[in-house]
């Protein structure tokens, strides 16, 4: 494979990974977490939230919960 083709393939794969990561992070955002926090939770929790996972506000701070009720 030509070096330029490898570079383009690497860029394309990077874009696909970023789009998928953003999609999963936005699901955390839909469950009360900030999008920035969602990016981290995608890595820590292995993807989008389960039905019972999300974020809830405790004393003015948003925190992870595995007992999310929406």
Q: In percent, how much strand structure appears in the residues? A: 5-15%
Helix tally equals 2
- Poorly predicted tracts of residues: none
Provide the helix percentage: 40-55%
Number of strands: 2
**Count of individual domains:** 1
- C-alpha termini separation: 50 Å
* Strand arrangement across the biggest beta sheet: 1-2
Largest sheet: 2 strands, antiparallel
Oligomeric state as shown: single chain
Q: What is the succession of H and E elements?
A: HHEE
Give Rg in angstroms: 16 Å
Q: Kindly name the structural category.
A: alpha+beta
Shape: elongated
Helix-strand blueprint:
Layout lengths: L2 H28 L4 H10 L9 E5 L2 E5 L5
Antiparallel strand pairs: 1-2
Describe the protein in words.
It is a single chain. The chain has 70 residues and is α+β, with helices and mostly antiparallel strands. The protein has one domain (3-65). The chain has helices at residues 3-30, 35-44; strands at residues 54-58, 61-65. The longest helix is centred in the first third of the chain and has 28 residues, at 3-30. The mean pLDDT is 93.
